[in-house]
Write a structure and sequence with these properties.
By secondary structure, the protein is α+β, with helices and mostly antiparallel strands. The protein has 2 domains: 82 residues, no CATH class; 79 residues, no CATH class. Helix content is 15%, strand content 37%. The longest helix is centred in the middle third of the chain and has 12 residues. It starts with a helix and ends with a strand.
Length: 182
């Protein structure tokens, strides 16, 4: 209990919205992942949901399947590296080379970011914005680029870059409170 209270005191910010029915907010903090966040632990009767560290990622875990799905991947930012360069490096490390050659970072115009972070998406270089909502088919910049079906973006912090997969609905983590650990 003392550890949980200490984490709350260190975390210093509250979740940006109430928890979902059947859920409660709790802090996730893992220096090996490099991330602090508010996440929800949920009990929906036959299904329980929580979050765990998985390598350098925050993963959501469902009790009825045992599966874990990465929702936030973390990469270190290099000294002196611009936000756009850091996001581009993370994209290039995960995307197929075909996408790296034809896609570029653009400021993410979706969910309003806090003033202390930058958000980027990757779209084809010949486009000026997000993929139109009515576009179907695979994302033109692959699974690490912009998608018409899911909200996902790169969030740049002073020492880290996060690839955040919000999904189609309000996530069970608070995307407005993500922080990097030192």
């Amino acid at each position: 209990m003392k550890t949980h209270l200490l984490l709350l005191a260190l975390f210093a910010i509250a979740p940006s919205r109430p928890p979902e029915k059947g859920c409660a907010w709790e802090t996730f903090s893992d220096s090996a992942v490099g991330l602090e966040a508010w996440v929800q632990r949920c009990d929906f009767g036959s299904r329980k949901v929580d979050f765990v560290a998985q390598g350098r990622s925050l993963a959501i875990r469902y009790s009825d399947s045992g599966a874990r799905y990465d929702v936030i991947d973390v990469s270190d930012r290099l000294p002196g590296e611009s936000g756009e360069a850091a996001a581009t490096r993370m994209f290039a490390a995960h995307a197929d080379q075909e996408f790296v050659a034809k896609c570029a970072a653009r400021p993410y115009p979706g969910i309003t970011a806090r003033k202390d972070v930058q958000r980027y998406i990757f779209v084809p270089k010949n486009r000026k914005g997000l993929i139109p909502d009515d576009e179907v088919g695979p994302p033109p910049c692959g699974p690490w680029g912009a998608s018409a079906e899911n909200i996902q973006y790169y969030e740049v912090h002073p020492t880290k870059v996060f690839f955040v997969r919000v999904g189609m609905n309000i996530p069970l983590f608070d995307e407005q409170t993500l922080r990097s650990t030192k």
